[in-house]
Design brief:
By secondary structure, the protein is an alpha/beta fold. It has 9 helices and 11 strands. It has a 6-stranded mixed sheet with strand order 5-6-7-3-8-9, with helices on both faces.
């Protein structure tokens, strides 16, 4: 394992469907120990790019190269679950492969959701479900995590906590992370590199540079209108799996009680 080794790259990626150009000559490279976030408006081609990188779509032009034997953990943007389907969290995790109950419990523990192993999947909250999806993705000890809108259906406080969790998983597994996100107000604090996409790459680079780039400023203006402040989330509190806020100072006092 080499730090900063190239895990997956796409070169000159274009994709058309029904005569409509969805991606235009996109370049992307994902390295180990790096978090890259792809942002852009609806219809920008973000999910199309992810599907091409996963090999689920063939590009109209360009190529994808991956490290030999690359293991990918994937959290899709949407996963429709039948609410009347009698499936427990444990059974759902087994859809990722043959893993022991201990391995599944450890994965859930790592994402802070170990108490839901025996719960019906239809009864967990949005935040719990996203953590379960992350647990499913890390069961294979991936080299690369690909997360398409990983905080979908999670409130603002829970989003910040999930981004923090994703960073910890990156450090734990020394994996690369590719995220697709609409959370422009949090994305800068959560990423090592940002790629702004609108069919083509508008701009890319370190968050502190991108936040001042004219194309990025135009993009967020077009997407959410004026008045958006990009900020770094101060983690002076934590959120439990249900979204409740706990002050870190109070937690420390309880620990040392």
């Amino acid at each position: 394992m080499r730090a900063n080794e190239l895990l997956l790259s796409g070169s000159d990626l274009s994709f058309s469907r029904g005569g409509q150009l969805l991606l235009d000559k996109v370049e992307i490279a994902i390295h180990r120990d790096e978090i890259i976030t792809v942002i852009g408006p609806n219809g920008a081609g973000k999910t199309t790019l992810v599907r091409i990188l996963l090999g689920l779509l063939k590009p109209s032009q360009g190529s994808v190269i991956s490290e030999l034997g690359l293991k990918i953990g994937y959290v899709p943007q949407r996963l429709q679950m039948d609410p009347v389907l009698p499936m427990s969290v444990e059974r759902f995790l087994k859809t990722a492969g043959r893993f022991s109950a201990q391995a599944m419990r450890e994965a859930l523990l790592e994402v802070g959701a170990d108490r839901v192993l025996d719960c019906p999947i239809s009864e967990v909250s949005g935040g719990e479900f996203q953590r379960i999806m992350l647990a499913r993705a890390i069961l294979r000890k991936p080299d690369l995590l690909i997360l398409d809108e990983p905080t979908q259906g999670v409130d603002l406080g829970g989003q910040a906590e999930l981004y923090q969790l994703i960073s910890r998983l990156r450090d734990r597994y020394h994996c690369g992370v590719l995220m697709v996100s609409h959370d422009l107000h949090l994305v800068m604090a959560a990423s090592d590199s940002v790629l702004c996409l609108n069919q083509h790459v508008c701009c890319s680079g370190r968050p502190e540079a991108i936040s001042q780039h004219p194309e990025y400023l135009r993009l967020i203006g077009d997407t959410v209108g004026p008045g958006l402040a990009v900020y770094s989330h101060e983690h002076d509190h934590s959120h439990d799996i249900h979204g409740n806020i706990h002050n870190l100072d109070e937690s420390k006092e309880e620990e040392h009680g």
